[in-house]
Amino acid sequence: MDSSSAINSASNIQMNYMKLLIAQLQNQNPLEPLDNNEMASQLAQFSQLQQLESMNSNFASVLSTTERNYANSLIGKEISFASEDETGAGDITSGIVEEVINNVDGEIILVAGNHTITLENVISVKN
């Protein structure tokens, strides 16, 4: 979930709640009015939800930047990584990282010789 959709979802929930609250206030029984404390509590919970979603999207952005910086620091270093040979059997291969690619999906790809490796497949790093 990107940051704008996270914030929009909390805002949409809050707007829907406000519409519902207005309808309840307009149609309430005058002898049994809505509880003000409950309404205030619910509004505070929506505000907390919005802040948590915003904080979550900010954290995801920081994590993404950290991963890119880490991947860039691997250029010129020897890495070991899981790979498959021609028969499809799993093997551990090593190579020098020559390039870091950020693909359109936001995935980080390392290039070492003829191999393209995701950051998750790196097993070890040597100078």
List the helices and strands and how they pair.
Blueprint: H1 3-26, H2 36-73, E1 78-84, E2 90-96, E3 99-102, E4 108-112, E5 115-118, E6 122-126
Antiparallel strand pairs: 1-2, 1-6, 3-4, 4-5
Give a verbal description of the structure.
The protein is of the alpha+beta class and 127 residues long. It folds into two domains: 3-71; 76-126, SH3 type barrels (Roll). It is built from two helices and six strands. It has helices spanning 3-26, 36-73, and strands at 78-84, 90-96, 99-102, 108-112, 115-118, 122-126. It has a three-stranded antiparallel sheet, with no helix packed on it. Strands 3-4-5 form a three-stranded antiparallel sheet, with helices on one face. A hairpin with a 5-residue loop joins strand 1 and strand 2. The radius of gyration is 25 Å and the shape is rod-shaped. It starts with a helix and ends with a strand. The model has no long low-confidence stretch (mean pLDDT 84).
Task: Give the key terms.
rod-shaped; SH3 type barrels; 2 domains; alpha+beta; 127 residues; three-stranded antiparallel β-sheet
Order of helices and strands: HHEEEEEE
In whole angstroms, the N-to-C terminal distance is 36 Å
Estimated share of beta-strand residues: 25-35%
Question: What fraction, in percent, of the residue positions are helical?
Answer: 40-55%
Please outline the major beta sheet: 3 strands, antiparallel
Q: What count of domains describes the coordinates?
A: 2
Provide the structure class: alpha+beta
Gross geometry: rod-shaped
- Number of separate helices: 2
Q: Main sheet: which strands, in order across?
A: 2-1-6
Strand tally: 6
How large, in whole angstroms, is the Cα Rg? 25 Å
Mean pLDDT: 84
Unreliable spans: none
